């Protein structure tokens, strides 16, 4: 049988009146928890400011009403309020987590503890109920699982891109090379057999060979965009240099690549994530910025690695980053968050965009092997 409240009070040296006064003050001060009493039948008999804040009822509207008003129709259908009271009466205390309903009909995720209150003779007087709003914590939990799911998607996509890049390079790339060699052989043979008048035919063979060169170049570029071999072979610093040179050649916009950090021994996830951030930022520059100059800077201090991509273009138009179908900036943010870092996007209209990622080294370096 649980100890009665007055038995608990008596274990201190304060009088019952002093104690109940302090107890009331305590309960009336608490705003983070809904603390209230129910009579043995489940009707509300007291109500603290925390209860008003969590459930929206002022005391005069709820005292005297049955506590089942806080439960959802589903819970009422299974008689949950009565079952909880019966369990608390039997075991002394019961704990529950689930949806509860506010006065305005909205729901919140609550942790609820119901404790049976008995008098000295063990007669049930009622119940003390403490409710805590866990909506924030639940939202955080949902956010964490969404972030974990998104990390898995990124990882799966990287693996798939790596596989396709290898297939493109090893299979299709080799076939184009073989075709080109065969064509060169035929060209030499044709030269020996055709007359001067048929040189037009030779010219078209040469044109086909040139087209095949262009095709091989495009294929290498597509494969490298999917997964640059230089990243796996030489690391992020070399891959950034390669990326900026390729950007400069392709879009005729000068890019300064400034590697200020000593070579960092980055783990795979960090290398590909930082690489993808720079790649997406440069793609955005090409698509949206109309820039004259771009800079990519990689640096590190004792505790952080910093990646910054700056352009001097038109800047972010108002509301442009809020488009529902734009995933570039969102993806960058997710990748950096996954590394325990932060990503900032700064711009004033007409004054270019600066993307800056700051990532803790502790999370991104390959652990030193003893
Ligand atoms: N460097 C930049 N200069 C000017 N505007 C930019 C720049 N980067 C992004 N923006 C603006 O921000 C918007 C959102 O960028 P984000 O990369 O998220 O999406 P997107 O490039 O439009 O589409 P995608 O999902 O293919 O990346 C862009 O549509 C563009 O209006
Ligand atoms: Mg984009």
From TrEMBL:
Keyword terms, alphabetized: Kinase, Transferase, Two-component regulatory system
Keyword Transferase attributed: yes
Domain Histidine kinase positions: 167-363
UniProt GO molecular function: kinase activity
SUPFAM superfamilies: ATPase domain of HSP90 chaperone/DNA topoisomerase II/histidine kinase (SSF55874), PYP-like sensor domain (PAS domain) (SSF55785)
InterPro entries given in the database record: HATPase_C_sf (IPR036890), HATPase_dom (IPR003594), His_kinase_dom (IPR005467), PAS (IPR000014), PAS-assoc_C (IPR000700), PAS-like_dom_sf (IPR035965), Sensor_HK_TwoCompSys (IPR050482), Sig_transdc_His_kin_sub3_dim/P (IPR011712)
Domain PAS: 22-75
Domain (PAC): residue spans on this chain: 94-146
Coiled coil: none
PANTHER family, per database record: NITRATE/NITRITE SENSOR PROTEIN NARX-RELATED, OXYGEN SENSOR HISTIDINE KINASE NREB
Entries under NCBIfam families matching the protein: sensory_box (TIGR00229)
Name listed for the protein in its UniProt record: PAS domain-containing sensor histidine kinase
Natural source organism: Paraburkholderia strydomiana
């Amino acid at each position: 049988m649980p100890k009665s409240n007055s038995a608990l009070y008596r274990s201190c040296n304060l009088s019952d009146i002093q104690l109940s006064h302090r107890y009331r003050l305590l309960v009336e001060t608490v705003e983070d928890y809904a603390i209230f009493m129910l009579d043995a039948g489940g009707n509300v008999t007291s109500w603290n400011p925390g209860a008003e804040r969590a459930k929206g009822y002022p005391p005069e509207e709820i005292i005297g009403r049955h506590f089942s008003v806080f439960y959802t129709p589903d819970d009422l259908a299974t008689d949950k309020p009565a079952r909880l009271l019966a369990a608390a009466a039997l075991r002394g205390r019961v704990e529950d987590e689930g949806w509860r309903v506010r006065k305005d009909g909205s729901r919140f995720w609550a942790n609820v503890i119901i404790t049976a209150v008995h008098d000295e003779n063990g007669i049930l007087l009622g119940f003390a109920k403490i409710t805590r709003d866990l909506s924030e914590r639940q939202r955080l939990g949902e956010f964490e699982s969404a972030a974990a799911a998104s990390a898995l998607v990124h990882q799966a996509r990287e693996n798939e891109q790596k596989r396709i890049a290898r297939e493109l390079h090893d299979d299709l790339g080799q076939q184009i090379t073989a075709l080109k060699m065969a064509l060169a052989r035929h060209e030499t043979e044709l030269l020996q057999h055709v007359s001067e008048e048929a040189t037009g035919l030779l010219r078209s063979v040469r044109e086909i060979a040139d087209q095949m060169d262009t095709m091989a170049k495009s294929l290498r570029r597509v494969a490298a965009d999917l997964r640059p071999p230089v990243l796996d072979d030489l690391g992020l610093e070399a891959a950034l240099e390669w990326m900026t040179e390729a950007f400069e050649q392709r879009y005729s916009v000068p890019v300064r690549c400034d590697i200020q950090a000593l070579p960092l021994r980055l783990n795979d996830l960090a290398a590909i994530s930082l690489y993808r951030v720079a790649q997406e930022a440069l793609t955005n520059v090409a698509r949206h910025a109309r820039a004259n100059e771009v800079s990519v800077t990689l640096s590190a201090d004792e505790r952080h690695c910093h990646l910054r991509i700056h352009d001097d273009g038109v800047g972010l138009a108002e509301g442009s980053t809020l488009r529902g179908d734009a995933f570039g900036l969102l993806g960058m943010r997710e990748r950096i968050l996954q590394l325990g870092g932060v990503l900032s996007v700064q711009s004033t209209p007409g004054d270019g965009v600066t993307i800056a990622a700051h990532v803790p080294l502790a999370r991104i370096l390959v652990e030193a092997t003893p």
